[in-house]
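User: Predict Succinate-semialdehyde dehydrogenase's structure from this.
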Amino acid sequence: MRRLAEPGLFERIADAAWLGRPANRETFEVFNPATGELLAELPDMGVDETRAAIERASEAQTEWAAQTARERSDTLWRWHQLIVRHTDDLATILTAEMGKPLAEAKSEVSHAAAYLQWYAEEANRIYGETIPAPSRDRRMLVIKQPIGVVGAITPWNFPASMVARKISPALAAGCTVVLKPAEQTPLVAGAMFALAERAGFPPGVVNLIYASDGDVVGRELCSHPKVRKISFTGSTEVGRLLMRQCSDQVKKLSLELGGNAPFIVFDDADVDAAVDGAIQAKFRNAGQTCVSANRLYVQSGVHDEFARKFTERVETLSVGDGFEAGVAIGPLIDTRARAKIEAHVADAVEKGGSIRCGGRRIDGVGTFYAPTVLTGISHTMRVAQEETFGPLAPIIRFDDADQVVREANDTIYGLAAYFYASNLSRVWRVAEALEYGMVGINTGRMSSEAAPFGGMKQSGIGREGSRHGLEDYLEMKYLCMGGI
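Assistant:
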């Protein structure tokens, strides 16, 4: 582990004393996927620790909700400032445990800080409403109150920004939180929680659970009656399971699940701009993003030009340890992720696809795979049907504009979509026809704390970010006052 700017910060990560001493002495290990280096041994918590954290959160809930909006805002703002001040520390931890290039890690930490800033401001804008009463002796109004204890489960691919995106609106609303980060990347969450303690959150408001078995913690969060809401980002399969586990209590859920994002290039597009956007949308975080471009549809009139220019750009992408200068693509999170890419490539080649570049693992200790471009792709291939979650770009030729929209929508997923076109009429028609919660038009990157993030169909329920993200943590209460 590289030395951090602040001595002692990393050691605080593994010291869970202020979060609640674990009931057992079991530990689990966290490794650097680029080097295989052991980074830390953390207490492996389970049902007992999760229940204790829920009880602490429940006890803290009343007082935290009773604070004024300005008081909660000020604490979030102090946390934001500490995150900004320790960007280099947090990015170093993030790159070590997740593998992404250091520049991307710093960008992610900045994105996390932006969510904290946004919801520090939104805490002061939780408004109710008055309703004209049907009689003179009544007054009718609506107030909004925090839903209560929130159980949050975050993924490994964006371990800093997902922490902030989930819990900052909860805290702004007056909820308390029990967070379980992914077992592959728990360290940056630990560092952020250490800074949260320093920011002055009262005991029990933010609670962290380290665990190698997410199922055990997830079941307890879903079944415990004092947890009023679950917020989860991860696979659709796990999302379905959490819905079933929450159903007996009709517990409120926010789910941000899998994607199968189409990236469409029409023949009136700026091809060079489309290539730039595709590189962003496909290869950021080595393609390990839920909004990653998974299917690249290119109209016949520009197909060959796009495929050539895109392949030339992909061949220049440097792969390696995220701490090395100039690296654009880091390792995959583990060997299973690499095996899935290899299976998709083999299936495509067997069914007539062609490898334009890449198509191979990179030898060495880390779980590296060369950024890959495939052409000659058909819908019978796994790569066109399944989310790859890696640096693999399949290009599908199309002729008919209406048909490509139907094919893009022919999936159970509906998280993100992208397209490039210049005709304004086409832009409006396609944007409205795509069955996705987010659509990037002539851009390959659209995430912002000010915009609602979330999907349709089996890509999830609810929205994160923007003013809409706050509503998921609030209950609406109607008050009718008589005898006025």
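The chain has two domains: 9-257+459-480, 261-448.
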